[in-house]
Every structure is written in structure tokens, then in C-alpha cells.
Amino acid sequence: MPLLPVPPAILRLGPEDPASRAWLWAHWGTTWALRHVRALPAELDGRRRRMAELRVEFWSADWSPWQALRRLRRDWLDLTLDLRPHYGDAAAAASDTAIAHPLRTPSRQPGPPATRPTKRPRTRHG
Q: What is the superkingdom listed in this entry's lineage (predicted)?
């Protein structure tokens, strides 16, 4: 069973359809589907030997899929989610890595959505 599936009717609409984008915004917190999704090798330390770990890397438009994370935390209490945004240059495009492994933890409220770094305003010299 998928953790947070996109309904088939929404998938059939395609990524550019306004209803598809509205669904993604309401349920995932981003206006584009996740891209370049791939599984990463698990990196367990000695304290986590008995825990399974799933590491996933993905590119996300706008910011992290915070609505999806909020729902996963609510619906899958045995998962611990660890989101680590990486903001790189064009050559090392930004990606968000989410790590999930079974461990009962106290319920946490998600923070505000991650934002992109802001640029400083240009000033005139001279």
C-alpha cells in the first residue's frame, strides 16, 4: 500500500491541468509533482541496527512537500520522517531527501514550509 498515493483520476489529468495542480497543492503542499525520485542506500549507525530505513531523494518545486509530510506523520505514527533540503547551484540542482524508518516517536507538529533563500537587493556603487 502506497504511503500517500495520488488518485488515478488526478494522474490521468496530467501535470499541467489546473485540477491536478490544485490537488497537489492541497495534499502535498507543492504545485508540481516530485521529480527525479530515486531510492538511496541506507546509512545506519550502530544505534539503529534493528531499524529499517528507506532513504529517498527527490526534486521538489516551490518548496518541500510539507502537506504530504504532515499527513504522513498523522497517518503513519510508526514512521519517523527526516527531511533535509539541499539547495545547490544549477549543476547540483536542489533536492530534498526524506528518510523514513519505523520508530514510534511523540507526535510532532510540522513547522512552516521550507522557503528558498532570498537574494539581497542590488545596490548601486559609484
A: Bacteria
